[in-house]
Amino acid sequence: MTPPPLADRLDGLLFFPVTAYGPDGALDLDAFRAHVRAGVEHGAAAVFACCGTGEFHALTPDEYRACVAAAVEEVAGRVPVVAGTGYGTALAVRYARLAEEAGADGLLALPPYLVVADQAGLLRHYAALAAATSLDLVVYQRDNAVFTPETAADLARLDRVIGFKDGLGDLDLMQRIVSAVRAEGLDLLYFNGLPTAELTGSAYRGIGVTLYSSAVFCFVPEVALAFHRAIGAGDQATVDRLVDGFYRPFADLRAKGRGYAVSLVKAGVRLRGLDVGEVRPPLTEPAPAHVEELAELIDRGLALVGAETGR
């Protein structure tokens, strides 16, 4: 039986697992599988493997393919698996084809490596990537890949480009992008892709962007799910309580170190009992005092939603 189109399946809380390494720094697929399995069992609507939180930048092509294949096998069709891809056009195409070989359902296109291209160059890059495989593509706006509303509409015209994820946080630009795409009679899925997307969830919903990636889901799915239910139901009191008591303090802690958007999440997974190893260079581990702050924040978040700490 042919599964529904990817665009029809990306509805719910989106899970971006970390990539697990052993004590020697090598890939630990058993721990990675356990992490993916736990996320799906907690209710993730999709698994985005080897993306930003999954240290795409640190993986060799062989490791990347192994991780995507492990996620596909572990998920076993219960939810879609979307794989990250990036770098220059040639390497992005290579990774995309590896993801397709591994059985992924779609791709998240990370920004091109290093260079700052004009709009025509960006469009050429994503057009080549979209044409390289049979997989549907979500384009990630952030850093050196920022689009005008007109270019976003051109992206929406490309076959297999189904989504636009915003990691920039410019709501004025996002509103103009949504409007420009709609005015052309085109359609895209829109995602809030900021590092702690829950903080801006209400603002993004105001312009029609309801999907978001939740890094917090990696280590406190109980809190992430409670927030997701509350914001979907319009329960502003619960949304405010979780923002004030957990998400804002977490974002404040994340801002204390470079790379904490990844390394702090990984530390949180370890604090909850699954040893996924440390981050790879050039990222570094959080300071011990910050890990202790994170442990206290986890307990506070779980208490806010009435869950057991389990520590």
Strand arrangement across the biggest beta sheet: 1-2-3-4-5-6-7-8
Unreliable spans are none
Instruction: Please count the helical segments.
Output: 12
Round the mean pLDDT to the nearest integer and report it.
Answer: 96
Based on Cα principal axes, name the global outline.
Answer: globular
Computed over alpha carbons, the radius of gyration is 18 Å
Total beta strands: 8
Give the distance, in angstroms, between the N- and C-terminal Cα atoms. 43 Å
EC number: 4.2.1.41
Pathway: Carbohydrate acid metabolism; D-glucarate degradation; 2,5-dioxopentanoate from D-glucarate: step 2/2
InterPro entries: Aldolase_TIM (IPR013785), DapA-like (IPR002220), Dehydro-deoxyglucarate_dehyd (IPR017655)
Pfam families: DHDPS (PF00701)
Tags for this model:
globular; alpha/beta; about 300 residues; EC 4.2.1.41; eight-stranded parallel beta barrel; lyase; Dehydro-deoxyglucarate_dehyd; about 45% helix; Aldolase_TIM
What does this structure look like?
- Keywords: Lyase.
- 47% of the residues lie in helices and 11% in strands.
- It has an 8-stranded parallel beta barrel with strand order 1-2-3-4-5-6-7-8, surrounded by 5 helices.
- The chain is α/β, with parallel strands linked by helices.
- The longest helix is centred in the C-terminal third of the chain and has 19 residues, at 236-254.
- α2 links the parallel β1 (14-15) and β2 (46-49).
- The protein is globular.
What would you say about this model in short?
The chain has twelve helices and eight strands.
Q: Helices, strands, pairings?
A:
Elements: H1 6-9, E1 14-15, H2 29-41, E2 46-49, H3 61-75, E3 81-85, H4 89-101, E4 106-109, H5 119-132, E5 136-141, H6 149-157, E6 161-166, H7 171-183, E7 189-192, H8 201-205, E8 211-214, H9 221-233, H10 236-254, H11 260-271, H12 288-304
Parallel strand pairs: 1-2, 1-8, 2-3, 3-4, 4-5, 5-6, 6-7, 7-8
